[in-house]
Write a structure and sequence with these properties.
The chain has one domain (2-270): 3-Layer(aba) Sandwich (Rossmann fold). Helix content is 44%, strand content 16%. It has helices at 36-42, 69-82, 95-106, 130-135, 139-166, 175-185, 190-202, 225-237, 253-256, 258-270, and strands at 2-6, 9-16, 21-25, 47-51, 89-93, 113-117, 215-220, 241-246. It has an 8-stranded mixed beta sheet with strand order 1-2-4-3-5-6-7-8, with helices on both faces. Keywords: Hydrolase. Residues 22-264 form the AB hydrolase-1 domain. InterPro entries: AB_hydrolase_1, AB_hydrolase_fold, AB_hydrolase_sf, Epox_hydrolase-like.
């Protein structure tokens, strides 16, 4: 892996292949290896970049006491600058989809294309006023759970709540993929877990109405209905948006259906302006 030295931490990332830059941003409590099926598929034709976001993977803990989607986006901009990438093709999953949306809002025509897997605009996936979110914040209960049970058990509890509410096999339809994802959460410290959750919860999604970047939103069939609705909002907001649902897949749609996800991404890339 390579390092990007910043004033308040070091971002670790990998690059594979040569060609147009294709940058993948992973989901919360994961790391760049979540994109292995995509790296293997696209590295023959693209320069594939997979960073580990702050608090995750090899990057791990960094200095700020509080993370934000804006900070993660600052890091993405710094990485693109470091690698002399002017117009990246961006692909984000879940938390990564928020980072890509923030990047698009800052640079409405600054990316060649954007793919949003498991796209979500806010957590919870209902956009609440800031004062309401502050009043009903789950952070105190989350902190208590982390102190008593640790990161993996807390994440399992979150998953059970989502499944009970939606009736969907939300995270993944594949028990092995689900177990791997939960196990990865156990490698994250309670302090970093809390900072990542806080960044997700506090994020206020941009309107995206000025975005000219061609954008594809991909959800799994078992995705939470409210999240799918937010995907529709993204597609309606941008100037050139499309939405796709893959059957037999959940939130981790790129891992549940890697061949179908890669095929959809390839078709989308082939249709981008030269």
């Amino acid at each position: 892996m390579a390092e990007l030295e910043l004033e308040d931490g070091t971002i670790w990332y990998e690059t594979n292949g040569d060609g147009p830059p294709l940058v993948f941003v992973h989901g919360g409590w994961m790391d760049g290896t979540a994109w292995e099926p995509q790296v293997e598929h696209f590295a023959d034709d693209y320069r594939v970049v997979t960073p580990d976001v702050r608090g995750h993977g090899e990057t791990g803990r960094t200095e700020p006491g509080q993370y934000s989607i804006g900070l993660f986006t600052d890091d993405l901009e710094a990485l693109c600058s470091e690698l002399a990438i002017d117009r990246p093709i961006l692909c984000g999953l879940s938390l990564g989809s928020m980072v890509v949306q923030e990047y698009l809002d800052r640079h409405p025509d600054g990316a060649a294309g954007a793919i949003l897997g498991g796209a979500v605009r806010s957590m919870p996936p209902i956009e609440l006023p800031t004062d309401v979110k502050s009043f009903w914040s789950p952070l105190p209960a989350l902190s208590a759970s982390l102190s008593l049970s640790g990161t993996e058990a807390t994440f399992r509890s979150m998953l059970y709540s989502i499944q009970a509410t939606t009736g969907q096999r939300w995270l993944s339809v594949d028990p092995e993929i689900r177990a791997d994802a939960i196990g990865e959460v156990g490698d994250i410290s309670t302090a970093e877990f809390r900072k990542i959750f806080d960044a997700l919860y506090r994020y206020e999604p941009p309107a995206l109405t000025g975005v000219e970047t061609p954008t594809l939103v991909v959800h799994g069939e078992q995705e939470a209905p409210l999240v799918k609705r937010q995907g529709q909002q993204i597609v309606s907001a941008v100037a050139d948006g499309d939405q796709l649902e893959l059957d037999n897949s959940g939130h981790l749609v790129n891992r549940d259906r890697p061949r179908a996800f890669n095929a959809a991404t390839s078709d989308f890339l082939a249709g981008l302006p030269a």
